[in-house]
Structure prediction request, 427 residues.
Amino acid sequence: MKHTKSIAAYEAAKRVIPGGVDSPVRAFKSVGGTPPFIERGDGGYLFDIDGNRYVDYVQSWGPLILGHCDPTVEAAVFETARRGLSFGAPTTLETELAEEIVSLFEAVEKVRFVNSGTEAVMSAIRLARGYTGRDDIVKFKGCYHGHSDSLLVQAGSGATTFGSPNSPGVPADFAKHTLLADYNNIESVKACFEASDNIACVVIEPIAGNMGLVPAEESFLQELRALCDTHGALLIFDEVMSGFRASLTGAQGLTSVRPDLVTLGKVIGGGMPVGAFGGRAEIMDKLSPDGPVYQAGTLSGNPVAMAAGLATVRQLRADGAVYEILQMRAERLVNGLKAAAEENGIALQVDVRGSMFGFFFNDKPVKNFDDALASDTERFAAFHRAMLDRGFYFACSQFETGFISTKTNDAMIDETIRNAKEVFGAL
Ligand SMILES: *Cc1c(COP(=O)(O)O)cnc(C)c1O
Prediction:
């Protein structure tokens, strides 16, 4: 497979864009090699500027559940764009998408749109702090909630409960308000509540997708809900990835636990930049202009983005069997990969939630970030490079989730497994 044009494009990009990319994972640092520069997508496929074709299991990191260039989504975008790209004034499209979300998510009575998942979680946390009058938050190691200051905190030395920033530029004074807990470990959350009586909220990916795919256990979520209630803290489900991915109602469709606030993104923009946060009216009404908690955005609720999101959500909603089919295909893929790996003496941990799939090169089940970190990342990198070279575009890190779209068919999946079998044999 030739990459001459991508290599030149990457060199040119690096001269004017830091690292040549606008989001770090795109640089392929953890797997090596040059990222293919993309020319176009078509259904389940990506095409790079060298003319190579790939089966796309990244789908823009989640949003494209209907695949590339879905005709209904494209038509909605073109028609809306013809009337103007942005007004900075209310449109009925915003209400229509809000109504879809409110009618699907039991925990959401009101919702506000923003431009990214980062902005959604950052705003939800400000609202939780404003509503409770408290400063501290609890997050889980290995969960990603965007790159805002108080959320860019993970496991430091692991010596303390209180977080230290994991990027220069985040003041320690901010990070100290972020307490860290271990995923699927309720004792670690109790320790946070013992360490601070100033906790505004606990934020969690109810199906973690940013340390690889690691679902929360039902009993853990139930205990988390109870702890938040006992201590008067809000529970925030960050469903930027799992919303409309794990099921039509996200992770919330798969658990009995109801959060106080929910964040969404990715699929609800259908490929356009959109985020949203919502919850009980009593909490959401604390937002400006009705309440004192300030939050705003020049392009928030952009009509073209709303149209893309609406066309996506309505199609998903109209097809009652869609998530079952997506899940069957995701299972077909990971079960095939697992069998192929095992034939070659390679241990693979696999899991699926709706259209989300994960696989770890690990001989033990993965329940939290430390388990995930014990995976064989070198073997993953070798697998990734070999599969890319054969035309299969997987996320370029062991710690990312993969995605099936409605355009990913059984033939593509079987081709993937056949190739993976040869790759595992050579690893
Ligand atoms: C992607 C993601 C975000 C951040 O969204 P951006 O649109 O990249 O800012 C936040 N939370 C979760 C769970 C995500 O997967």
About this structure: Residues 166 and 382 are 27 Å apart (CA to CA). The longest strand covers residues 199-204.
